[in-house]
Amino acid sequence: MKNWLKNNRSYILFMCCFGFFRLAIADWNPIPSGSMRPTLLEGDVVLVNRLAYDFKLPLTNHVLVELGSPERGDVVTFKSPKDGVQLIKRLIAVPGDVVEMRDEVLYLNGVASQYQGPVRVQEPVGNGVTMPAIQAQETLSGHTHTVQVLPQVNAMRNFGPMQVPQGQYFFLGDNRDNSADSRYIGTVPRQLLVGRAHRVLVSADIKGNWLPRWDRLVQAIQ
Predict the structure, then answer these.
(1) Could you list the active site residues?
(2) What is the Cα 128 distance to its own chain's centre?
(3) Using CA atoms, how far apart are residues 204 and 211, in angstroms rounded to an integer?
(4) The Cα angle at residue 190 between residues 193 and 149, in degrees rounded to 5
């Protein structure tokens, strides 16, 4: 055993450093569902900055040092307070904000989000089947991104108003009618935030022909 450790110490050191890097500094995560469409697609692999907000003790939720403030509009990976599953959603409201939705229109602190350029598209749902969808540019607290609604889906289009508690954050998926987000799982405490997703590394059409999506290579996340 001693000889094996001696002969492989460089490899062991590399793997330890690599593991620490992934657990504490940066990570990459595949997108398994369509809850963030059209911003993120199934088959995207996103780069996550684990030091965007906190430095944590690896393999725990214990925050050692707070490094930054989560901002509205950030795309964040976090652990669900409901079952611990890691999710990725958009941060909509921070502690103290009052958030509300009326007939798909998002309100933050009593101010309605602005929507521009709505277009009708066909949303793929698998096996070559599509359904009608509407996409629009939503401007929330100065940040503009694309959201999507599915008129034929039975979804929660009204909630609130509710005030986000201190130390908690409110998230929504960009695919508003197909997302298990804070409307269903509640607000998320800061210690469950993993990091900020800021770039698509690679992508493949896993719901179609499995070919690479070259146009999404190293694409910044808006």
Answers:
(1) 35, 89
(2) 26
(3) 5
(4) 60
Rounded distance, CA 26 to CA 199, Å? 12
Query: Residues for the chain: how many in total?
Result: 222
DSSP state letter for 181:
S
Q: Mind listing the pLDDT tens digit for each residue in 94-125?
A: 999 999 999 999 999 999 999 998 999 998 87
Residue 125, pLDDT score: 74
Question: Amino acid identity, residue 36?
Answer: M
Q: Where does residue 88 fall: left (phi above 0), alpha (psi -120 to 50 degrees), or beta otherwise?
A: beta
Nearest partner of 139 among 169, 173, 105, 164, judged by Cα: 105
Distance between CA atoms of residues 118 and 15, nearest Å: 48
Contact predicate 85/79, CB 8 Å: yes
Please state, rounded to an integer, the average pLDDT across all residues of the chain. 88
Residues 6+ apart with CB under 8 A from 43: 30, 31, 203, 204, 205, 206, 207, 213
Q: Are 124 and 209 in contact (CB under 8 A)?
A: no
